[in-house]
Amino acid sequence: MKLPVILLYHSVAADGSDCGEPTRIPLAQFVGQLDLLRRLGYRTIGLPQLRDRLDRGAVFSRRELLITFDDGYRDNCDTAWPALQEHGFSAVFFLSTAWIGRASDFNSHLSLPMINWDQAADMASQGAEFGSHGHRHVDLRELSPEQAALDVRTAKQALSAKLAPPVPSIAYPYGFSSPAVRRLVEREGYQLGFGVSRTGNADRFDLPRMTITHGEPLWRFRLRLLHREVSG
Ligand SMILES: [Zn+2]
Q1: Mean per-residue pLDDT of the chain
Q2: Ligand 1 mean position, distance from CA 107 (Å)
């Protein structure tokens, strides 16, 4: 495999309520997926392993996995992280640094409390990894090159000051980037960039992720995993 399977989550709801936001999934759905991943023998790898193996052009085993979360919702800490730990999985959390410790309002129909720096530091001490989701959570393709550079630089500086992640990485807000954005991110010192494109060409600044949405039956999740395995 050129790339491991990389899953993209956003929010996990402990009470299982359906708030109409497709990227907010109930805890039962999340745990069902983690149970399946464990049963199938998946194990999570971290950003340093991913970067080092991409550097060497090494292949990945079929059952290697990265679990990622975008935005930095408080439930990532309260609900998702304990479930991940129970299953022996690690994960990477991409934070929009301007929103830390506040409530999100970049998402038109959903405002949720966000993680704060102390919670992130706690999780990091337990093995969670962190990356940048931009500073203000704006589509970097729509900013001037100067504004985009400032946004990703601000996020990177805040993260290195607070959490010192060993591999500076970014997940593009809304999932999309352009060649210009990817070059700019590399110039700003990031080493990996995560997107949502379906087909992986092993571009380390546009790593493809499999988006998880509310209500997907487990059989379909399993089918998509299998598809990633054979196409990766
Ligand atoms: Zn986002």
Answers
A1: 93
A2: 8
